[in-house]
């Protein structure tokens, strides 16, 4: 105990060995408080950086999908759809892209986008492009056949994302599955507009 008291007075840190053989720096005295507070600041910065990347990763696909709906100049009457169907398609598509973007961010945070780009990044990009193309084709140009093709691409991309994301992070794979269901439901809505 006397040695510990002397170390506390001098602000010296000592290294202890845990039972599993790994070394753990145990801070003693005034020097230890500074180390702990610096670690907390690093964790705080990393958390802020992570939340910023999450916000950007979700906001960009959501904004692109919403912009595709509003830029398509979709007139429900011209597309053969009721206003309620268009409203459901807008809200569902934006929500599905938010969930898919969250799943993609979870995979990216674990490094899966770099390790397996063909199984994660390519299907996500294909699914996003198909989702952005659906509104201008199905509603703007009133071409339900092209809309069905976009829905088929969205289903294929979402299934590939669910499989690819699930290999990296099972929760992300499960988050992509409702997007498959949404793409099928959007195909049904699109078919009813024919």
Automatic annotation (TrEMBL):
Keywords: Membrane, Transmembrane, Transmembrane helix. It is found in: Membrane. Belongs to the TspO/BZRP family. The keyword RNA-binding does not apply. The chain crosses the membrane at residues 50-71, 91-109, 121-139, 145-168. This is Peripheral-type benzodiazepine receptor. InterPro entries: TspO_MBR. It is a multi-pass membrane protein. GO terms for cellular component: membrane. PANTHER family: PERIPHERAL-TYPE BENZODIAZEPINE RECEPTOR (PTHR10057), TRANSLOCATOR PROTEIN (PTHR10057:SF0). The keyword Transmembrane helix applies.
């Amino acid at each position: 105990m006397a040695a510990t008291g002397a170390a506390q007075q001098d602000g010296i840190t000592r290294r202890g060995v845990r039972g599993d053989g790994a070394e753990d720096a145990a801070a003693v005295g005034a020097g230890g408080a500074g180390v702990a507070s610096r670690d907390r600041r690093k964790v705080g910065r990393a958390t802020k950086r992570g939340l910023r990347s999450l916000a950007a990763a979700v906001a960009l696909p959501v904004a692109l999908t919403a912009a595709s709906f509003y830029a398509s100049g979709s007139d429900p009457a011209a597309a053969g759809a009721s206003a309620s169907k268009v409203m459901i398609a807008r809200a569902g598509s934006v929500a599905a892209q938010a969930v898919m973007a969250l799943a993609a961010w979870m995979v990216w945070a674990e490094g899966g986008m770099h390790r397996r780009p063909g199984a994660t990044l390519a299907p996500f990009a294909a699914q996003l492009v198909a989702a952005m193309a659906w509104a201008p084709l199905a509603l703007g140009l009133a071409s339900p056949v092209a809309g069905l093709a976009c829905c088929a691409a969205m289903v294929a991309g979402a299934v590939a994302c669910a499989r690819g994301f699930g290999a990296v992070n099972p929760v992300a794979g499960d988050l992509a599955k409702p997007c498959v269901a949404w793409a099928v439901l959007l195909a049904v809505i699109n078919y009813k507009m024919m």
